[in-house]
């Protein structure tokens, strides 16, 4: 019997339940997928808490990798036996499961040299890093970025990718242990926000100019410091709200701080077109397979331990990527 993590009410990690589920056979445009590894992402907590409302009861998780065991009518992009990975949003909710029916459209076939554990650890984070580095700004060698949560899953990939492009990365972290991890993955400068003034330190490191771009996944707690770290006409990229939503503000603030630009992108809009999704994925897989970008899986959990995994994630105990291991060989 297949199992899944589901929640029947919103709230803290304790609302997550391990349940038996009936999977059935795939319909048109669908596949039955046996998971080997499942990704753990901060966005998962938004569904559980109700920040991202969904009809209840609901499954949990939007990213996983595994093997196609059956295909429905009309499916042409994958076949039985293919190793695949996927990520998405509402359309892939329910990834915390041993087996499931899922639409075939979001599936990405894995190259032989990318394992399911690595794929589950990097598909959402890696595709996010891919569009941040390739679609958001026309980066050139010598540019500089401020990267919040530099020791997190997206942060470690962005840092390595930026280094490949000759970009100076200033990362923020909460501890010296995380600072060491960030430096080892491409951060030229690291700021410990627990005792350093981020914007002031950025100005010191950039001779008073500020950075070209800020990647801010923290939100409420870092928004003002992020704006104050940008150079004139710099770009603020809001990619998450780990500390809470950004409060409403007058857009005149952007003019007052140097005619700044601000964007709030979502991964779904950069992988909606299959050709663009494949392009972003292929470049990501190429870097990982060649060893130019390392994927750090620093936490592994059993699916049954989803509540503890969420506690660890929300208390910022994790670094790099975290996964749930469904198949013991993953």
Automatic annotation (TrEMBL):
The keyword Lyase is annotated on this UniProt entry: no
Top-level taxon of the source organism: Bacteria
One protein family per Pfam: ADH_zinc_N
NCBIfam families documented for this protein: PRK10754.1
Listed GO MF terms: mRNA 3'-UTR AU-rich region binding; NADPH binding; quinone reductase (NADPH) activity; zinc ion binding
PANTHER family named among the record's database cross-references: QUINONE OXIDOREDUCTASE PIG3-RELATED (PTHR48106), QUINONE OXIDOREDUCTASE-RELATED (PTHR48106:SF13)
Residue span(s) of domain Enoyl reductase (ER): 11-324
Presence of keyword Chloroplast: no
Protein name according to UniProt: Alcohol dehydrogenase
UniProt-listed Gene3D superfamilies: Medium-chain alcohol dehydrogenases, catalytic domain, NAD(P)-binding Rossmann-like Domain
The organism of origin for this protein: Caballeronia humi
InterPro entries (alphabetical): ADH-like_C, ADH-like_N, ER, GroES-like_sf, NAD(P)-bd_dom_sf, QOR-like, Quin_OxRdtase/zeta-crystal_CS
SMART domains named in the record: PKS_ER
Annotated keywords: NADP, Oxidoreductase
GO cellular component: cytosol
């Amino acid at each position: 019997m297949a199992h899944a993590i589901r929640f029947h009410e919103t709230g803290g990690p304790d609302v997550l339940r391990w349940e038996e589920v009936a999977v059935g056979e795939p319909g048109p445009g669908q596949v039955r997928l046996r998971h080997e590894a499942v990704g753990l992402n901060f966005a998962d907590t938004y569904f559980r808490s109700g920040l991202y409302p969904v009809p209840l009861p609901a499954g949990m998780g939007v990213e996983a990798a595994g093997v196609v065991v059956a295909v429905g009518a009309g499916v042409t992009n994958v076949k039985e036996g293919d190793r695949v990975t996927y990520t998405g949003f509402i359309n892939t909710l329910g990834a915390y499961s041993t087996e499931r029916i899922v639409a075939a459209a979001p599936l990405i076939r894995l190259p032989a040299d990318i394992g399911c554990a690595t794929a589950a650890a990097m598909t959402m984070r890696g595709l996010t890093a891919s569009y941040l580095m390739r679609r958001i700004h026309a980066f050139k060698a010598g540019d500089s970025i401020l990267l919040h949560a530099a020791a997190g899953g997206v942060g470690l990939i962005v840092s390595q990718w930026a280094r490949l492009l000759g970009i100076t990365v200033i990362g923020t972290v909460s501890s010296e242990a995380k600072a060491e991890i960030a430096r080892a993955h491409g951060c030229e400068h690291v700021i410990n926000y627990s005792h350093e003034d981020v914007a002031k330190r950025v100005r010191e490191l950039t001779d008073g100019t500020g950075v070209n771009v800020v990647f801010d996944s923290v939100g409420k707690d870092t928004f003002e410091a992020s704006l104050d770290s940008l150079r004139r006409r710099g770009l603020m990229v809001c990619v998450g709200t780990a500390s809470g939503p950004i409060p409403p503000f007058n857009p005149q603030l952007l003019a007052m701080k140097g005619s700044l630009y601000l964007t709030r992108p979502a991964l779904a809009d950069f992988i909606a077109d299959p050709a663009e999704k494949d392009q972003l994925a292929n470049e990501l897989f190429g870097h990982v397979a060649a060893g130019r970008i390392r994927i750090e899986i620093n936490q592994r959990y059993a699916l049954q331990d989803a509540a503890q995994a969420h506690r660890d994630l929300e208390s910022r105990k994790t670094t790099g990527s975290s996964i749930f291991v469904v198949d013991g060989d993953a």
